[in-house]
Design a protein that fits this description.
alpha+beta, 3-stranded antiparallel sheet, 52% helix, Cytochrome p450, 425 residues, globular, single chain
Length: 425
């Protein structure tokens, strides 16, 4: 097929296209992707995925593999840098995501979740994706950006929503400078300019604050890190890129995972009862298993990509320098070998130890594993605990949903509609 058709299949119809290519060509196949026309070689078997994640980071460049995200996330983004730049950025960011920091964020997440859940109307079907997007946006703006002023929040919310809701055609056009002055691409760029202006205002105000050491938000923590040298702390441009990365990588992805989780629980009264009992008992491990199973059944991101700086061999296949290789999350998660009865929603598989390494990969792996993985799971568990401690969850009669591609993510096409009933003591 022409490269354009293959690219559209990958970007717009990935949940049909990728499995179809797997059925036709087997465990390893290649797709030609625009705008550069490079070959993307797709793998999914656990042993192949392990080779990709364990590959020398000087050869397996994740930053170049994610280059399509550059126009929005910026050149300093943790997702887009490689080698020594990546090591430095990750070292500076890590203190904001260690265990002690996560415990400090949890109470804020719980408070925001409690306020959101308390506003729901019983017996009235609604799109859980819409409410989870609103909630996770508040978490990002307050916990990551440290913004609590309502006027500033009101300015940021629409800018973020427009940045996230990028049509796949606009997304594909990010790599073609000549079309940036026209139609939806121009509007996207104008929104980005406004978005950046507000972010830099927030950074400047925070730098001038005299109480950084008393603040617990991620931005304040990042302003305090460093070794005292010019290169040992984050400059404004780097802060902007890391904040936007954390927002775009952690907002809609977590919201979508939560929406699918509520939808799956609403479909299955038995699993919903188990999750409610876990929430009541404070069994966070089981709630995390519930969230992970929804993320397995409904991948939000389709694949993890690396760009080869030197020729390598993966799974016995010789690959040239300049190729991109991908560990397919979609195929890895629906593998019947790795996940027996893969189409069933069964959180117990994450409790009984039957999910092997390199078969559940929503956060990637190796030295490039998502730095916000712990934050995302903590947030998801806290939200589920609030929802399930307050309500019984079901889906409206006859309701069904399926994935729809929105920029690099896949979301419930019909919003993962649910209906809730307040629990009686």
């Amino acid at each position: 097929m022409p490269a354009l058709v293959q690219s559209i299949g990958l970007l717009r119809f990935r949940h049909q296209f990728i499995p179809a290519m797997h059925r036709r060509f087997g465990d390893v196949f290649s797709i030609k992707v625009l705008p550069e026309g490079r070959w993307l070689v797709v793998f999914n078997r656990p042993d192949h995925v392990k080779e990709i994640f364990a590959g020398d980071p000087e050869i397996f460049h994740a930053g170049k593999g994610n280059s399509i995200l550059g126009p929005m996330m910026g050149e300093h983004s943790l997702l887009l840098v490689d080698g020594s730049e990546h090591k430095r950025a990750r070292k500076l960011l890590m203190p904001a995501f260690n265990g002690a920091a996560l415990r400090g964020y949890e109470s804020v997440v719980e408070g925001l979740a409690r306020a959101e859940v308390g506003s729901w109307r019983e017996g009235v079907p609604f799109e859980s994706l819409e409410r989870m997007n609103a909630l996770t946006l508040e978490v990002i703006l307050q916990v990551v950006f440290g913004v609590t002023d309502e006027s500033r929040l009101a300015a940021l919310r629409p800018l973020v929503n427009r940045a996230v809701n990028v049509h796949p055609i606009v997304f594909l056009g990010w790599g073609i400078p000549k079309i940036q002055n026209y139609g939806p691409w121009r509007r996207n760029m104008e929104n980005q300019v406004d978005f950046d202006r507000v972010i830099y205002e927030v950074i400047a105000e925070r730098r001038a604050a005299g109480d950084l050491e008393q603040r617990s938000d991620v931005l304040s923590r990042l302003l305090l890190v460093g070794d005292g040298t010019a290169d040992g702390s984050l400059k404004d441009e780097e802060l902007r890129d890391q904040l936007v990365t954390l927002l775009l990588a952690g907002h809609e992805t977590t919201a979508t995972a939560l929406a699918w989780t509520l939808y799956e629980l609403g479909k299955d009264p038995v699993q919903e009862k188990k999750a409610r009992e876990a929430a009541t008992a404070g069994d966070n491990d089981y709630l995390e298993a519930v969230l992970k199973e929804a993320m397995r059944l409904h991948p939000v991101i389709p694949m993890v990509v690396r760009h080869l700086m030197e020729p390598v061999t993966i799974g016995g296949v010789d690959l040239p320098r300049g190729a991109n290789v991908a560990a397919s999350i979609i195929l890895a998660h629906e593998s019947e070998t790795s996940h027996p009865a893969h189409a069933q929603f069964r959180p117990e598989r994450f409790v009984d130890g039957s999910v092997a390494t390199n078969t559940w990969i929503p956060f990637g792996g190796g030295v490039r594993r998502c730095i916000g993985a712990g934050f995302s799971l903590m947030e998801g568990v806290a939200v589920l605990r609030e929802v399930l401690s307050t309500y019984d969850v079901a889906i409206p009669a006859g309701s069904r949903d399926e994935p729809k591609v929105r920029n690099i993510t896949s979301v419930p096409k019909r919003g993962a509609r649910i209906v809730v009933t307040r629990r009686t003591p």
